[in-house]
Amino acid sequence: MNGWCGKILKIDLSSGRTEAKRPEREIYARWIGGRGLAGYYLRDKVTRSWDHPEMPLLFFTGPLVGTTSPTSGRMTVMSRSPLTGTAGDASVGGSLGTALKKAGWDGLIITGRAKTLCGIEIADDQVTLVDAAALAGTGTSGAYARLKKKGAVALAGPAAGVGVRFADIVVDGHYAAGRAGLGLHFAARNLKYLTVRGSGKIRIAYPEALKKANEDVRRLMAASPVLLGELGIGQYGTAALYDLLDARRMMPTDNFRRTRFDAARRMNAHAFRQRYAPRRTGCRGCSILCKKIAADGRSLPEFETLSHFSALVGNTNLETVMEANRLCNDLGMDTISAAATLACHGEIRGRPLEPSEILSLLMDIGTGRGIGQALGQGAAAYARACGRPETAMTVKNLELPGYDPRGAYGMALAYATSTRGGCHLRAYPISHEILRKPVATDRFTFSGKARIIKGAEDLFAVVDSLTACKFVFFAASLEEYARIYTAVTGVESSADDLLTAGERIDYSERIMNDNNGFRGTDDDLPARFFELPGTGDGHLEIPPLDRAEFLKARAAYRRIRGLNEEGRPTREKAAEMAIDWDGSSEG
Amino acid sequence: MERLIRKYVDKLIRSGLAEAGAPLMGARDAELIWNREDKNRAILQEIFTGLHISTLLFALPAEPYRTLVDFLARTSPGTIHPQDTETRTFLHDLPVVTSLAPAEIIRALKNRKCAIVPGRGIITYGTVSPEQAFVTFSSACFACFVKFFADYLRDVRNGSANPEQKAVFQQVVDYLGSPARLDFSLTHGPFRDEATVLTAMEEAGKATVDCRLVDSYFGNISCLFKDILYISQTGSSLDELRGCIDPVPMDGSSCVGITASSELSAHRAIVTAGTHRTVLHGHPKFSVILSLACNEKNCALRGQCHLRCPRRRQAAGVPIVPGEVGTGPYGLCHTVPPALAEHRGAIVYGHGVFTVGKTDFNDAFASLLDIENACRKEYFASL
Ligand code: SF4
Fold first, then answer.
1. Cα dihedral angle (A466, A468, A474, A478), rounded to 10 degrees?
2. Over the stretch B103-133, which tens digit does the pLDDT of each residue have?
3. Tell me: the pLDDT tens digits for B2-11?
4. For A137, left (φ over 0), alpha (ψ -120 to 50), or beta?
C-alpha cells in the first residue's frame, strides 16, 4: 500500500496478546485514517461504559503521517470520553504518530486491563509489555525523562491515577492529547506509558507530484500572516491570538461574565517572550513550529491556556500562568478544563482566586486531595454538586475555551454543534470571523453560518483523518491537500471527495452520541450567553446572543447536516453516506 | 446572504469585470437564493448539488477580458497556466471545460476554484462567502490579461506571434482606454492624529481601486504615525478599508496586528529606514507584464525567476526584484526594502509595485500611477 501501512496493531492488556489486523482497502478509502478510522473502530463499542475492558483506546495515524507533506506529524487518540460521555478524540502532535507509522502501524487498538501497572513498548513489529510499577504516581516530566531514550513517548500523569475526568495524555513531554479525558483510559487499563520506535519508510505513490503539491502549500504558508508572519503563531505560538481576541472583546473574563481583560496588555505573548526567551519547536514534519519552550524547559502557554489562566480566573501574574501550565502538564490534565473548573469554583464561592490558590488547587485536583476530588470531576459535575449548575460554562460537559461566543456567532453555533462538546477546534470559525481566512465574515450575524459550520466540521474531520494540522488551513485548503493525498496514496481524489469523507466521519460521531443518549437539546449553550452582555467599549457593544436567532441557525444547521428536526441522525442520511447503521437509536 | 450577493454582483460590474445583467450568482445557507432569473439556473442548481459549496457565480466577463479569456481557452485546451504570482500561489492554474455540462464543471470545480467555459464565461464558487467567488473571478480575469500580454510580447520578440494572436491583440487594445489618472490630490500630511491617518488611508486605498491599480482584493497600504504602523488587514479590499486597518506598534509589544497584511514585514522594514512614512502596494497590469518579460537567453534559473532572479532588471526607471508573498526565505520582505532605499518604487517579479511617500499618500500614489503608465508605454514601444 502507498501512504498507509495496511496494518493495525491490537493489544489486549488483560491477556497480553497482540494481533495484527489488516483492514480491507475499502475501509481505508472510506475512513482515511486518524479520527475517521479510529471512529470506525470505536462505533460498535461506544455504548459501553468508558472504563469497560472492551472499550478500545485508539491511537491512529493517517496516510500523510510520516511523509514529507507539511504538518503531517500529528495523530488522533480516541475513545469514549470519561468527561462528556461523547465519542472523545484528541489530535496530538510531537513524534508519536510518525514513530508509529514508521514502525509499520496505521493504528493501535488497546483493550483490556493489565493486572499491574505496565508500559507498552513498540519497536517496529516487536511489542513488549513492561512492568511500570516504578513509575507509579510519577509526574509526566519525570517519567518522560526516564523513557525518552525508547523513542516517542505517550504518558498519563498522576491526575489519571486519582480519577480526574479531564486527565490527558502527554506526548514527548510537551504535547497534550487533551479535552476528552483520555488520560483516564490509561489508568483504567493499568497502563502508565506507551513508547514507539520505528525504522521503516512510508511508500509514496507519486513522489514528484508530492513535491509539487508540497511546494504549493509551502508558498501559501509563507503568504499567511497568521502562520509565518512576524506576529504569527510561528513566532509567538498560538498565544499570538491573545491581543487580538481581547481587542475584539472576545476574551472570556471572570468566568465568562465579562469579555475584556484589563491586564491583557501586560500578559500577552510579547510579555512572555521578553521574560522567558523561548525557542521554537513543534511537531515532527512541521515547519510552522508553533510550540515555544522556555530556557528552563517549561512550555510556554498556548492561547487557550494563557487566556483561561489569566482573564478567566482574574490572574495578572505571568509566572502563575507558566507554573499552572507546567503543573497541568506534569500532573497530566487538560489546561482549559482545569482553569474553567477553577473559574467556576471562584464564582460559586464568590471571590476570585489568588495566584497561590490557583496553583495549590491544581495540585489538589491532580493528586485527589480535599476539594480537588470534587473539582476533578469537571465544571459541570462540580457546579451541579454545589447546586449552581448555571456557573458551569460547558457544552455537553466540556468546558469552553478562550473564545467568547457573544463576539463571534459562528463560534456560538460551532460550540453547540460540536460532536465532542464545547470545543473550538471542530469548525474553528475564528479563522474567518476573526482572522479573515479564507475571507472575512461578519462575526455578529448567524446569516450563512449554519452551512459554513457544517462545511468546516466536515473539513476538519478530514484534516484530523489525513492527518494534518488544522493551523495550516489558515493558508492552504483541501484543494492542495487533495493533491497531496493522491500523490501519497495513489487514490484519485478531489477536495470535494475528501469533504464527502469528512461528512461521513462527522455523521458517524453523531450516531455514536445518539446511541449514548445525546439529543438535539444538548446542542446548546449555557444560558449566560443569552442573558448577559459582553464588555463593550462605547463604540462597540457586545449584546447577549439572540436566542431566537440562535435557534433558527441551529434548525438550519440540522437541515443542512441531514439531521431530523430534533437534531437526531436519520437512517436515510446514514445510508446516503454509506454508513452501516441499523438506525437502532433513530429518532 | 441576499445583501452579500447584491454587493458582489454590483462590485463585478463596477470593477469592469462584467456587464450589467451578466452575473448570475446563487448562494445558500439552508435555502438557495439567486440574484435573478436565468435559463442557466437549472444547470447551476445541478452543480450546487454536486459540490460542498455555498456560492456559485457564472458570468461572461466584460471586454477586454472576454476576448482574452476565450483566446487563451481556445489555445490552451485543458488548462491555462498563468505565471503571475497571484495565480501561482492562490489559483495554481485555470481549468478549461468544453461545455456547460454539469458533470464536466463539477469535475473541474472539485479540483480548482474556477472553470472557464469558452464563449460562455467563467464559473467560480465560495465555501464561506460570496466574496470568494468574486475574488476568484477577478483573479482569473487578471491572470488571463497578464498572460496574454506577456505571451504576446515574448512571441513578437521571438518572431513567433501568429496571425490569430495578432488579431486578438488588435481587438483588445481598442478596449484598453486611456491611461489612468487622478484628478484630485489626496489628503496632505503631515497627519495630526490617528483619525486623519485612517481617513487618508481609506481615501488612498479607494483611489487605487478606482484607477484600477489593484485587482480583486489584493494590494496593501500603510502609514507610520507615532511609532505605530497603521496597515491594511490581510484580504481587505483597498476600497473598503473602514474597520480593516490594524495598528501595529513598531516596538513589537503587541500581536494585535496578526491580521495585518502578509506584507507587514516589508512595510515595517521600509519605514524603519526612516525616510518614508507611507507605503502603497498595488498590482497594476502592465508593470506585472513587463516584469515577466525577460530577454535573457539560456538563463540557468529559468523557472525560478520569481524566487531568485540575480539580474539587475528595470522597467519605468525602477528596479524589478524577485520575491514571494510573505516572509519565507524568498519573501519580498528581503528584496523590496533595499530597492526602495534608492528608488521611489520597486516592481516585484510577476506580482506588483511598491511605492513610498514622505508624509502622505500623494507621492506614493503618483509614483504608482507613473510607473504603471510608463510601463504601459514601454510595453507598446517594445513591440
Ligand atoms: S503548527 Fe504547531 S501544532 Fe501544528 S503541526 Fe506545527 S508545531 Fe504542531
1. -20
2. 999 999 999 999 999 999 999 999 999 999 9
3. 899 999 999 9
4. left
- C-alpha neighbours within 13 Å on the C-beta side of residue B210: 12
Is the predicted pLDDT of residue B216 greater than 70, yes or no? no
Q: Using the beta-carbon criterion (under 8 Å), do A229 and B327 form an inter-chain contact?
A: yes
CA A270, A276, A277 angle in degrees (round to 5)? 80
pTM, 2 dp: 0.95
Reported ipTM:
0.93
Residues 235-274, chain B, touching A (beta carbon < 8 A): 235-236, 244, 248, 252-262, 264-265, 268
Q: Which CATH superfamily groups domain A8-197?
A: Aldehyde ferredoxin oxidoreductase, N-terminal domain (3.60.9.10)
Chain A interface includes B112 (CB < 8 A): yes
Neighbours of A386 (CB within 10 A): 15
Give exposure, A85-95, as e/b (b: 16+ Cβ within 10 Å).
Answer: bbbbbbbbbbb
Pair A75, A125: CB distance under 8 Å: no
Closest-CA distance, A364 to chain B, in angstroms, reads 35
Q: Does A320 touch chain B (CB under 8 A)?
A: no
Task: Please indicate whether, in this complex, the C-beta atoms of B128 and A452 are within 8 angstroms of each other.
Answer: yes
Write down the domain spans for chain A: 8-197, 237-393
For residue A586, pLDDT beyond 60: no
Fold that domain A237-393 belongs to in CATH: 1.10.569
Residue in A49, A181, A111, A60 with CA at minimum distance from that of residue A505: A60
Strands (E), A42-117: 57-60, 75-80, 87-92, 107-111
Proportion of chain B above pLDDT 70, given as a percent = 99
Distance CA B310, CA B122 (A): 37
pLDDT in tens, B228-263: 999 999 999 999 999 999 999 999 999 999 999 999
Report residue A323's pLDDT band, with 50, 70 and 90 as the boundaries: very high
Question: What cell was used for A424?
Answer: 473550538
